[in-house]
């Protein structure tokens, strides 16, 4: 999760973008929605992307963001201005517009990533964007995401995430010494070393994210 200061910087930036992008009489609505997403790094990325690139140069305020899907810290979100609906994919670091909802343009690979066979299959399952839950609500329910890399319960952490537990010593995988024992070297110096370690890690079986795991968990790695 992002630090408060970083979130505030994003909020300030979006407020400025809104002043340029949205006509005065609709600004209050745009601000109200921004308020809802003040502490939501993913929501802020989407708003920043929307207001900085304004699809079709339409100067409309965002009135709603909905949660469509989520996988390994990547979110598929819908964004509505009341007059137009768009589909976005987003992480805590970036967001990109895939086009208007009904056209679900953009990259079919993104839809495939979320398990949809394509645009038609997606729209058949979800003909109306309005049916999805508010992303702000879902985000609160989904507190059970890794607090660092945002994967869900049962998913693998992004490699290097400090929350991931080592399957050999049950310490912190990003800090423990198991890797050096495994590759039989004092330090990792090449991509090859890293690949060898990753292969062994896959074979051993990585430990998925579970509720309650945090950067300090487990507090004291067991000595081997
Ligand atoms: Zn993680
Ligand atoms: Zn270890």
Q: TL;DR?
A:
Helices cover 36% and strands 12% of the residues. By secondary structure, the chain is of the alpha+beta class.
Q: Estimate what percentage of residues fall within beta strands.
A: 5-15%
Across the major sheet, the strand order is 1-2-3-4
Please state the CA-atom Rg, rounded to the nearest Å.
21 Å
Poorly predicted parts: 217-224
Query: Which bin fits the share of residues in helices?
Result: 25-40%
- Quantity of strands, as a count: 4
> What is the terminal-to-terminal distance?
32 Å
SS content category: alpha+beta
Shape: elongated
Largest sheet: 4 strands, antiparallel
Unique bound compounds: zinc ion
Q: What is the arithmetic mean of pLDDT?
A: 86
Counted by DSSP, the helix tally is 8
Give the tally of structural domains.
Answer: 2
Question: What is the H/E string?
Answer: HHHEEEEHHHHH
Q: What is the secondary structure topology, with strand pairs?
A:
Elements: H1 4-21, H2 27-36, H3 41-53, E1 64-71, E2 74-80, E3 85-90, E4 95-100, H4 108-113, H5 119-125, H6 135-141, H7 178-183, H8 191-204
Antiparallel strand pairs: 1-2, 2-3, 3-4
Helix pairs in contact: 1-2, 1-3
Task: Characterise this structure.
The protein is an alpha+beta fold. It has 2 domains: 4-141, no CATH class; 144-224, no CATH class. The protein contains 8 helices and 4 strands, in the order αααββββααααα. The chain has helices at 4-21, 27-36, 41-53, 108-113, 119-125, 135-141, 178-183, 191-204; strands spanning 64-71, 74-80, 85-90, 95-100. Strands 1-2-3-4 form a 4-stranded antiparallel β-sheet. A hairpin with a 4-residue loop joins strand 3 (85-90) and strand 4. The chain starts with a helix and ends in a 20-residue tail after the last helix. The model is unreliable at 217-224 (pLDDT under 50). It binds zinc ion (2 copies).
């Amino acid at each position: 999760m992002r630090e408060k200061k970083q979130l505030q910087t994003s909020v300030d930036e979006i407020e400025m973008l809104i002043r340029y992008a949205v006509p005065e009489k609709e600004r209050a609505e745009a601000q109200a929605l921004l308020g809802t997403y003040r502490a939501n790094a993913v929501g802020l990325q989407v708003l920043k992307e929307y207001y900085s690139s304004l699809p079709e140069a339409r100067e409309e305020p965002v009135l709603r963001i909905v949660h469509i899907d989520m996988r390994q810290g990547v979110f598929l979100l819908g964004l509505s201005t009341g007059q137009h609906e768009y589909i976005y994919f987003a992480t805590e670091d970036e967001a990109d517009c895939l086009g208007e909802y009904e056209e679900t343009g953009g990259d079919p690979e993104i839809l495939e990533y979320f398990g949809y066979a394509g645009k038609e299959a997606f729209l058949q399952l979800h003909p109306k964007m309005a049916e999805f839950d508010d992303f702000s609500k879902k985000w609160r329910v989904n507190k059970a995401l890794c607090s660092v890399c945002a994967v869900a319960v049962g998913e693998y952490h992004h490699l290097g995430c400090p929350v991931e537990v080592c399957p050999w010593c049950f310490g912190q995988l990003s800090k423990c010494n198991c890797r050096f024992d495994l590759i039989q070297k004092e330090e990792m110096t090449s991509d090859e070393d890293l690949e060898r370690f990753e292969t062994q890690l896959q074979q051993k079986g990585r430990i998925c994210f579970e509720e309650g795991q945090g950067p300090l968990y487990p507090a004291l790695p067991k000595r081997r």
